[in-house]
Amino acid sequence: MVIAENDIVILYIDEDNICLVKLKNDGSITNKKGIFLHKNIIGKEYGSKIYDTLSRNFIFVLKKTPELIATSLKKKTQTLYEHDISFICLLCNALPNKKIIEAGTGTGCLTYALANCVLPHGVVHTFEYNEERYTEVKKEFEDFEDVINNIKFYHKDIINYNFEDFKNNEIDAIFLDMPNPWLCVEKAKNVLKER
């Protein structure tokens, strides 16, 4: 698949440095390996080796996946990593067209993975009480056209939320990534589908 302007790609610099970039024809990224021009990435295939402006060092351009996004997102909260995310998706039975509630959006790593799992018609309802994190992750996800229509963001404290936006037996799974999940279990249980 050929990479185009405005695509979001993963740049693999080394095992400790992986970043998510939206490509602009006049854009560039500078890191310890040099200056890399976006125009040298646009038109290439995923997996290509991209050289810096001095042709001394290189990085790889990769297609975004939930695992690589989890590795690349800024770690401003206690982040779940790839193996944890995979296991959580399994436990939530995150399959196409399911409806899932996530509390504690954080960096959005799990949100992205869950949304990928429930495509094409499922929904992830994600709650974040911290206004700065909510605003930041919601803005970041605007560029994720592959999943944005499958995510509903809520700036609410789920502990004080009565789940009035949901019908009884509507939700397939709830994942509570928060310090005190037991405080909302009683209120949340009515929206869960019976198994």
From TrEMBL:
Keywords: Methyltransferase, Nucleus, S-adenosyl-L-methionine, Transferase, tRNA processing. The keyword Amino-acid biosynthesis does not apply. The keyword Nucleus applies. Transmembrane segments: none annotated. It holds the Pfam family GCD14. It is found in: Nucleus. One of its GO terms (biological process) is tRNA methylation. GO terms for cellular component: nucleus; tRNA (m1A) methyltransferase complex. Signal peptide: none annotated. One of its GO terms (molecular function) is tRNA (adenine(58)-N1)-methyltransferase activity. It comes from the Eukaryota. S-adenosyl-L-methionine binds at E128, D157, D177. Residues 58-194 form the tRNA (adenine(58)-N(1))-methyltransferase catalytic subunit TRM61 C-terminal domain. Its EC number is 2.1.1.220. This is tRNA (adenine(58)-N(1))-methyltransferase.
